[in-house]
């Protein structure tokens, strides 16, 4: 593909995804039908959570100005037309959309193995693009088994990542493992900030790699206000699977005599682990922010993002309520997917 051809294809790709974003924002009956189809296929995908994911993709990834600015940061170059295998996760709706966008926008072809937990949304949206830009969707194929590819991007658990590392070792690859978001509190947060933090904790029932699974609080932190705000997200306990997990882990905490606090919808456990169970939020005290930052730097391979108030951290962080709204350039695990694809 020549530099001119590449530039033209990138422009067409951007236009195609901008068109998709406009269609999503139109919120027509076809989109609502798709949202309910996806929710019916996976008990964890409530219509509200599916709509949250779809509209977050539209606002963060499919905005015309954001797309053009993002693509302009990568220099045009002549390169081969590669086939990139994608193994997508299914923990939350459309979690693999960004990888597909990157592959197509970089001029390659995508060979996609969907998770059986989320196999309706992305194909339907790609089909929608095909109504307007068939040349774009001709560069993507959904398969049950990957073969005949040149590079791989795979997302999964720590166990599956170990298998991926071994099986795909001879190919250029990005292999992603389990990660979670953490939040740093100072005790000076407003009620509005804590409410936004609640969104980071409870959206998608905490199943996403960018959901906050642990908070760090100063010594002698008063949890009263925090728990009161978290209780405003009571709707999560109306979901039977979430409620079953909450009840099970509360019983386990009581029986094992763990140091815990609870509200109607959340269990707070003092625990050094970053990853927590459904319905559980870990917490840990810190003495000084500087020492906490050093600790978080050492644990960076377990952390997807840090949530904190403005000017609290010198480490890169996102504001409360923004954990599930990553920008185009906020790559999973901090690995620049576009740079990887451009180097193929």
Features:
single chain; 5-stranded parallel β-sheet; alpha/beta; Aldehyde Dehydrogenase, Chain A, domain 1; Aldehyde Dehydrogenase, Chain A, domain 2
Describe the 3D structure.
The chain has 344 residues and is an alpha/beta fold. The protein folds into 2 domains: 176 residues, Aldehyde Dehydrogenase, Chain A, domain 1; 129 residues, Aldehyde Dehydrogenase, Chain A, domain 2, CATH 3.40.309. Helix content is 43%, strand content 16%. A 6-stranded mixed sheet has the order 8-9-10-7-6-11, with helices on both faces. Helix 1 runs antiparallel to helix 3, helix 1 packs antiparallel against helix 4 and helix 9 crosses helix 10. It is globular.
What is the CATH top level name of the largest domain? Alpha Beta
* Helical/strand content category: alpha/beta
For CATH, the homologous superfamily of the largest domain is named as Aldehyde Dehydrogenase, Chain A, domain 1
Distance between the termini: 13 Å
List the helices and strands and how they pair.
Blueprint: H1 3-26, H2 29-41, H3 47-61, H4 64-72, E1 83-87, H5 97-105, E2 109-113, H6 121-132, H7 134-137, E3 140-142, E4 151-155, H8 158-167, E5 173-176, E6 180-184, H9 191-202, E7 212-218, H10 224-230, H11 240-255, E8 260-262, E9 267-270, E10 280-286, H12 289-298, E11 303-308, H13 337-342
Parallel strand pairs: 1-2, 1-4, 2-3, 4-5, 6-7, 6-11, 7-10, 9-10
Antiparallel strand pairs: 8-9
Helix pairs in contact: 1-3, 1-4, 1-6, 2-3, 9-10
